Amino acid sequence: MYTASSFAAILALAPAILAAPAPQAAPTSAPAVYVPAPVPAPSDVAVTNVTSHGPYTGPAPTTTGALTTTFLAASIPALPPNPTATTYPSDGMLHDPEPAPYTPAGGLGTNGTEPVYNAKSDFDFESLAVALYQEWIELDLFHWGLATFSVEDFEAAGLTATDRSLIEFMADQEVGHATLLTNILGAAAPVQCTYNYPVNSVREFVDFNQKLTRFGESGVYGFLNHLDSREAGQLLLQSISTEARQQMIFRQFDGLFPMPVWFEVGIPQSWAWTLLAPYISSCPANQTRLAWQNFPALYVENNPNAARINANRTAFGETIGNSSSAPLNETVVPMADTCLNNTVVGEDCSPAISQNRSEPLSFPGRQVFFSWEEPGKLVGPNNSYVTTTMAGAPVYVAWVSQLNLTYTDLTLTGPNAGYTFQPNSSTFANDPAVNGTMFVALTSANVTLTPFNLSMINPFVVAGPALYQAG
Asked: I want to staple 277 with a disulfide (CB 3.0 to 4.6 A). Which of 22, 57, 187, 380 is the partner?
C-alpha cells in the first residue's frame, strides 16, 4: 500500500520521468487506464459565513484582563552574555567529529529525532495563539474588502481584475495558515471572531492591509527564534515568509516603494497584540484568552499621508479612525496634492511594481507630534482586555525599525501630548534606519536593547506602539 509520502515521492519524480526520451517501440493496443484526479483535502477550520462586522455592542464582559498566573518577578532581569557565547573560534575549520558525512557537528534538532509539531511551553502556546488571531483577521479582511467594494471602486483605485484575484488568493493563503496553527495548537486554538475595520474606500482598504500585515509579520519575527518548539517554528517561518510577500504587494498596491529597508523588523508579542486587539469586536464565549499585555494607545498626530504628493504637508488627523495603525484618509487631500493617477514622474502613487517619489514621505529632523491614552481602557474582543503600563512618566520616543532601536527626547506640550524629531540613524551606511512602515513607542527609560531581546523594553513602555509611515 502506498503512503502519502510515497505518492509525494512519485509525484516529485514525475517531471524527470516525463522528460526522458520516449522509446521507439511498436504501438500496442493496451487500453488506457483511468486515474481519477486527487480530491483536495478539506480544511480543518471553518472559514466561511462565520463573521459579521462592526463595533462591539454586547453586554459588559464577565472576565477582563490578560490570562495570568503567579508572577516570579516584576520583570526579567538583564544578565551578561552566556559564558560560552564567544568560545567558538569561527575560523572556517571543523573542530568536532561529524555525526555523518557532509554534516558538521552542532545545530538544534539535527540528531535524527522525529519532529513533533506542537507547543512545548506556555510561551509557545501564547505566541502561536496571537499569531493565529492575526491569521484569522487577515483571512476575513481580505474577503471583506473584495465583497464590500465594487469592481468600479477597485478600478478607480487602479486595481484590475488580476489584482483582485491576487487579493483573493492571499485570502486563500490565510486558510492554510489558520489551519496550520490550529492543528499545532489543538482543541484550545483560538477561533475566528468578528471584526471592525476603519475603512471607507479601496485606497484606505489597501493602506490598512499594508499596515496590518506589517505588524502581523513583525510580531512573528519578534518571537520566532525564542520558541521552545523548533518544529513549530519551522512551519511558522514558512508561513510568515508568505505574509512578508503579502505586505510588499499591498505596499505596491498603495503606490509605495515596495521594500525600502535592508532588514525587516521584529516586535514583541505584546506590541502586536496591542495593535491587533482594537479591531476585534467579539469572540465566542469560550474563546481561549491571551496572556500578552495591551498597552495604552499612542497616536501619531501628523503621520505622513501617502495619498499626498508631498506628505510633509500632512496636517493633524489625516487618518481614518482613532487607532495606532489607522489607514490614511484620502478624502482630506486637496486635488492639487493628490498623487493617485498623477502623470508627473515622481509624483504618481498609483498601484505599480515600484514607485519612487520625488518628495519622501518623511525625513530626519521632521517634527512628529503624539498624543496618547491613559491606561485602564477596555479593548479587544468583547471589550474584555484592559490597557496597562508598568512604566513611569514618558521621557523618550523609541523608534524601532530594521535592526535598530533608537531613542529621541519627548517634549511635552500638555496632558498626554508632545513631540519629538525624527532621528537620523542607521546600522550600515546608506541605509537609514527610519524607513518603511515602522514602529514608535513612548518609554520612561532609554534602555539599550537589540533585536533578540527587544521584549525587555515592555516594562518601560508608557504608550504604544504606533505605526509610523516613514517611507
From this structure: 380
Q: Output the CA–CA distances (angstroms, integers) from residue 402 to 81, 261, 308, in the order listed.
A: 23, 7, 25
Tell me, what DSSP letter sits at residue 96?
Answer: S
pLDDT digit string (tens) for 48-85? Answer: 556 678 888 888 887 888 888 888 888 888 889 999 99
Among candidates 435, 425, 257, 277, which has minimal Cα distance to 355?
A: 257
Tell me the whole-structure pTM to 2 decimals: 0.89
The three cell numbers of residue 20 are: 526522458
- Tens-digit pLDDT profile for residues 209-228: 999 999 999 999 999 999 99
Share of the chain above pLDDT 70, in %: 90
How far is residue 318's CA from residue 302's CA, in Å, rounded to a whole number?
A: 7
8 Å CB contact between 466 and 441: yes
How many alpha carbons fall within 13 Å on the CB side of residue 269? 21
Amino acid at 403: L
Give the span between the Cα atoms of 110 and 440, in whole angstroms. 39
Torsion of CA 217, 220, 221, 223, to 10 degrees: 160
Element spanning 443, H or E: strand 437-443
